[in-house]
Amino acid sequence: MSTGIRTIEDVDCVFPETLREALAALADGAHGTRILAGGTDLMVQWASGVIPPPEHVVSIFHLPELKGIREEDSALVIGAAATHAEIRDSVLVQKHLPALAGDLPPALLITDGVVVVASAGGEREIPLTEFFLGYRKIDLRPGEVIMRFLLPKMPKGGRELFQKIGPRAAQAISKVMGACRIVTERKMIKTAAIALGSVAPTVVRLWDFESWLEGQKLDEDVAFEAEQHVAAAVKPIDDIRSTAEYRKWVSGRIVRGFLEEILK
Fold this sequence. Notes:
- The chain is built from 8 helices and 15 strands.
- The chain is of the alpha+beta class.
- It has a 5-stranded antiparallel β-sheet.
- A hairpin with a 2-residue loop joins strand 1 (5-8) and strand 2 (11-14).
- The longest helix is centred in the last third of the chain and has 20 residues, at 244-263.
């Protein structure tokens, strides 16, 4: 490799110049090597002892192949190393995927898009609806790196909304968050995609509720019924952030709020 190995907290950290070099480094030590892309999560876990520091780290945040936001036919292509600020401030995102200004997992899930991952052996595409497997677990195999997201644009007649409920505005931790993409025509709901976070081990789509909602005429009565459906459907837990009972109530209120906002 054209760059050397640096030591950070007794961890050997490789700074490759290209994606090809990064994938080769991961392939050489796939099971004992971790990817580092900024470190806001991993560095905290290592320092607190939640997980032990690995022997080797490959830093990928700086790689140009993982950057950028561009338009491609009926989708936006967002690089895995695009920052949240870049996504939030992107004119393309504001026009075609406005919910992405919020927390990403629910906003990604409502697009029915795909994530492209790569290894030294090639690339594969994974539907986002199958990518989040559990708490801190995604469908990423040893030696793979997330490359980019292919996200279909919001269709004609569609609205995207995002809502997050937390302890206070200055704290990033959420009690419940949600995103929706709803397409209407003459007040009839043609399609609906709704995802909630912090109500299960990982972000969830409300598939049964979406089926119930599609074909309905959107009015105040449907918005009220929707609140009851969602509150009954989610199965959250009690934890340090909130209670299950409160999360069920808030989940229903968030979805009702989405529908009432679209009604305006």
